[in-house]
Write a structure and sequence with these properties.
single chain, Rossmann fold, 6 helices, alpha/beta, 5 strands, 22% strand
């Protein structure tokens, strides 16, 4: 193996995202790999009974995506990753990460893991699912 060529960083834009991206930066520097960042907005539509509370022309999904783009840009600026490719996708987090890994032909996925306790351990997690289903190497950065 000659090293990684394309590292995809999946971030949730919480404070731990900086640590995840920093770890990926270290690896990219070591291997001379391309870096890309991905955030998935998992939009859950408001149920019809709740729609009456919102003014009709509100584009919640669009606002969530624009806010995520701003935060992803700020993260890249803070880490000196202005030239890194970045994507904000809408959909199921696991499905979108798997789709983007395949589209981008990433050979390493880097993501963070918040510690799970009690019932959450039995329910499974996005991270656990991705480790088993992603067609490339996965580095899970422990954040807790």
């Amino acid at each position: 193996m000659s090293g990684y060529q394309h590292i995809l960083i999946a971030v949730d834009l919480t404070p731990g995202s900086e640590a995840v991206a920093h770890r990926a930066q270290e690896l990219a520097g070591r291997y001379g790999a391309k870096l890309s960042l991905l955030h998935v907005v998992e939009f859950i539509p408001v149920d019809p009974a709740g729609e009456a509370l919102l003014p009709p022309p509100v584009d919640i999904e669009g606002e969530l995506v624009q806010g995520a783009r701003r935060r992803l840009d700020a993260l890249c600026d803070n880490l000196g990753l202005q030239s890194a490719a970045r994507r904000v996708e809408v959909g199921n987090i696991k499905a979108e990460i798997l789709r983007v890994v395949a589209e981008e032909k990433a050979d390493l996925l880097v993501l963070g893991s918040h510690g799970r306790h009690g019932l959450a351990l039995l329910m499974g997690s996005t991270e656990k699912s991705l480790v088993h289903k992603t067609p490339c190497d996965v580095l899970v950065v422990r954040l807790s």
